[in-house]
Amino acid sequence: ATVMAEAIFNEGLKSVAAGVNPIQMKSGIEKAVADITEKLQKVSIKIREKSEMANVATIAANNDREIGNLLADAMEKVGKDGVVTVDEGKSLHTELEFVEGMQFDRGYLSPYFVTDMTSMEAVLEDPYILVFEKKISNIKDLVPVLEAVVQQGKPLLIIAE
Fold it and tell me: How does DSSP classify residue 131?
């Protein structure tokens, strides 16, 4: 998909530079995407069994059957709405780890957030939790939320990039 998107972009850029109307080109690309999507849905085969998933995953893993089987195990465990993340390991062993809920790569941003010095943990009792998908670059945007939390007298846990 990425290779196709790059090719469409590069060729589209050439066409616009040659005088093609970009609005008409966008419309044409959207029609082509709809047409291709419809055709792919007609020829696609639904995977119903774990063995079929393992076969597809094996092909995606450069015909590595072990990786294909691990991916099939992961997909079976998390279900069709779950998320499977593949990370590069630091050892020669391939591992499969299941995490219920969410997992974060880092902890608190500053040691000043530590509330329990013996375990070096930030322990919050019944906190409000703010999950923000991006980096917080302007604290002014959070002031109304922070003021509301202060009025309630409860701690606030902020999870952000």
Answer: E
Q: How far is CA 60 from CA 18, 97, 125, 160, 161, in A?
A: 38, 20, 45, 32, 30
Tens of pLDDT, residues 96-131: 888 887 777 777 888 888 888 888 888 899 999 998
CB 126 within 8 A of CB 154: yes
Considering the segment(s) 46-101 as one domain, its CATH architecture is 2-Layer Sandwich (3.30)
Beta-bridged to residue 121, according to DSSP, are 116
Domain extents for the chain?
2-43, 46-101, 111-159
120 vs 111: CA distance, rounded Å: 8
Task: Please write the tens of the pLDDT for every residue from 44-103.
Answer: 999 989 999 999 999 999 999 999 999 999 999 998 888 888 888 888 888 888 888 777
What's the CA dihedral at 130, 133, 135, 136 to 10 degrees?
A: -30
